[in-house]
Design brief:
The termini are far apart. Strands 2, 4, 5, 6, 9, 10 and 11 form a seven-stranded mixed beta sheet that branches. The relative contact order is 0.33. It contains no helices and eleven strands. Helix content is 0%, strand content 52%.
């Protein structure tokens, strides 16, 4: 079974940048599309970004307006989320997810990490 472990979260000021990492292991990782979701206190989990298994295709939540970049290093079994121009509204627990198949914007992913906290202060 694929295992995902997020890291790189922390406390930053508005306007700063942060890079999240997701270390993946498992027999099917190379065939998995990967996604990032986030969940703020009292709110539902929402889609952030996703990347296809070879990294040729990416998609993002419309509200991000180009501030985030998702990428993956297949050789290192790692997925990244580069977050720029962070805003207080970006504060949430960020989750890495994997699924066998195409990227999806809904939470229909088979595997999930434990999450990493991102807090953006104003």
């Amino acid at each position: 079974q694929v295992q995902l472990v997020e890291s790189g979260g922390g406390l930053v000021m508005a306007g700063a940048s942060l890079r999240l990492s997701c270390a993946a292991s498992g027999l099917t990782f190379s065939n998995d599309a990967m996604g990032w979701f986030r969940q703020a206190p009292g709110k539902e989990r929402e889609f952030v970004a996703a990347i296809s298994r070879f990294g040729a295709y990416t998609e993002y939540a419309d509200s991000l307006q180009g501030r985030f970049i998702i990428s993956r290093n297949r050789a290192e079994n790692t997925v990244f989320l580069q977050m720029n121009s962070l805003r207080p509204e970006d504060t949430a627990v960020y989750y890495c997810a994997a699924r066998n198949g195409d990227t999806r914007r809904d939470p229909n992913y088979a595997y999930w990490g434990q999450g990493t906290q991102v807090t953006v202060s104003s």
